[in-house]
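Quick one:
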Amino acid sequence: MKKIITIVLLLIVMVNVSPAQKVTFSFGNRSIAAGILSYDLIATVPSGQYWAVGAATIRLNISPNPSTGLTIHPDNPVINQNPNISSGGYQPLKTLAASPTIMSFNILTFNTSGFYRFNPGTYTLGKVRFDVVGSFVTDSIKFRVNPPFTSALTTVNDSTVALVYPTNFTIINPTITGTGNNVSELPKEFKLYENYPNPFNPTTSIKYDIANNSFVKLTVYDVTGKEVETLVNDNMQAGRYEATFNGANYASGMYFAKIEAGSYRHIIKMVMLK
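Output:
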């Protein structure tokens, strides 16, 4: 009996001193249309974890080339905001310019308990948007959580407890594969391009063209035909877009990306090698 009690106590101590990661933030679905550059802000909760979403501020740094090529486009409410954390006990999500080069993505709640809980999976929180000023060569947009972590940079809450970077949350900054200025010509046909890079480890970009306003679904499947992630599931305007698949929580092997947009259907093969 004493041995069992000792083992239980050791497990409790181990859990207390080694908190597990709860959420990873990343960007996806990059698009430039109507003078606006936008990204989806994505939260991925790993297997066996959860994120009980309290009031939180997620900050981003922008440093385009040239420096005058982009300005922050505040949204109140955020476009395509996640309904689970923007209603009920939550206020609508909003973004604002904390400075000319710092954007704040704000999750606001009056809750003191009963926070919405994201279980393992990938979730779009909402769009972050930037105005295109003239032309630009590259957009550099990164999470403002440079070590050492301090609340002055970014505060992410699990209920009323601030999550510590990188112990309780991590980040994946975007790899820019598309550059240029405002799209002057809309695509004439629907198209799903081959992902890049391919093979990949652990992220890859998937570009696609939408010829006219349509409901678009972009889904990733494994070799057994099981749905792994839905990257896009929304009404979208005509334009050129880019989504990111993050396979950090999945095994090496063959995956398939399928797009459904209007009557258009297409599948590509993707190989992840870790």
